[in-house]
Design goal:
Layout (H helix, E strand, L loop, with lengths): L20 H12 L10 H6 L6 H17 L7 H13 L10 H20 L6 E5 L8 E5 L10 H22 L7 H16 L14 E2 L10 E2 L4 H28 L1 H14 L1 E3 H10 L29 E4 L4
Antiparallel strand pairs: 1-2, 1-5, 2-6, 3-4
Helix pairs in contact: 1-3, 3-4, 5-6, 5-9, 6-7, 6-8, 7-8, 9-10
Length: 326
């Protein structure tokens, strides 16, 4: 009730944000005390790979890693245990026994290869951590990226590259099989939301201009459930047209990128079909075999580090997966 927040009542509000990188590192130190850690454990890397996690999430992560070590009969917690714990927390339990046809496995492999290839070659995209086609939770495959820095603002070129990465799975299926599937639904939802924010909230459309549309407030009927309509039908049409233009342009960039690197796309997909999971360094190696020009990642943590969490909106980076029922 807003009346409770009027002056003289409960008028002092204390904002408790989610922990930043340094805070997450200190929280991990607290929860790691008393636990035997392998020398290969780098809590700085774990902290970098957990943006958006609360203190309770980080405590759960350490406990899950310890449980994985116990189940393996290991007397120390290793880096791979942290990674398995993070995947479990974010995506759910692996479904390694799930029966997929050879055709489905190939489609999923090319879908994830498309995401991974785009992320590896685009200059502002977050580096690839790992790619897997092992089902987990509701996902049939996942491509994970590791942000090279803690971001608080997002440049337009970074957002556009993120849109291309999101389109990578769908366009890879189209190029290889000549037909698309329902697996890209999650990617399309995220891409459309991101493009709409570019137009309606962030002033990244030349046609709409430097204006922000859509008051935040409860809406029960209307064009969506989060924004009230403070603009005309004509403006709504222009917004929709600009969203479509942005998505079409980035879709074409994605198609051009995958076409130019088609041999590498095949190599990555074959590696996934053979090994089921590959890390970012393997993706880079396969691209280099084809003579691909890759962006300079100097100063970025190695791809074998713990992967980044799927950031909450409006952050465009994260993980991209194909789902069975989308």
């Amino acid at each position: 009730d807003p009346a409770l927040l009027r002056p003289g009542r409960f008028d002092r509000q204390v904002v408790v944000p989610l922990p930043e990188l340094e805070d997450r590192r200190e929280i991990l130190d607290v929860h790691a005390k008393g636990k035997r850690m392998s020398p290969d454990v780098d809590l700085d890397v774990v902290a970098r790979g957990t943006p958006g996690m609360s203190g309770a999430d980080l405590a759960n992560l350490v406990n899950e890693a310890a449980l994985f070590a116990v189940r393996e009969g290991d007397d120390v917690i290793r880096m791979r245990h942290f990674e398995e714990a993070r995947d479990r927390v974010l995506m759910g339990q692996r479904r390694e026994s799930m029966a997929l046809s050879d055709g489905e496995k190939e489609a999923i492999a090319y879908h994830e290869a498309g995401h991974a290839l785009c992320a590896a070659v685009l200059p502002t995209a977050d580096p690839i951590h790992k790619v897997t086609i092992i089902p987990a939770g509701m996902a049939l495959g996942v491509t994970q990226q590791l942000p090279d820095q803690e971001r608080h603002i997002y440049r337009q070129d970074y957002i556009e590259d993120s849109l291309v990465v999101r389109m990578g799975g769908r366009i890879a299926e189209e190029l290889v099989f000549g037909v698309i599937s329902t697996g890209a639904n999650n990617d399309l939802v995220g891409a459309t939301e991101l493009a709409r924010k570019m137009v309606r909230e962030w002033g990244m459309s030349r046609r709409v201009g430097p204006m922000a549309w859509g008051n935040q407030g409860p809406v029960f009927l209307g064009e969506d459930m989060m924004h009230s309509r403070d603009y005309s039908d004509d403006t709504a049409r222009v917004i929709d047209e600009e969203v479509e233009r942005i998505l079409r342009e980035q879709e074409q960039r994605c198609r051009d990128t995958l076409t130019d690197h088609r041999r590498a796309l095949d190599l990555i997909a074959r590696a996934l079909l053979e090994h089921e999971t590959i890390d970012g360094s393997e993706v880079v190696r396969l691209l280099e075999l084809t003579g691909a020009s890759l962006p300079d990642r100097t100063g970025v943590a190695p791809p074998t580090a713990a992967a980044a969490a799927a950031p909450a909106a409006p952050e465009p980076a994260g993980q991209h997966h194909v789902t069975p029922t989308d």
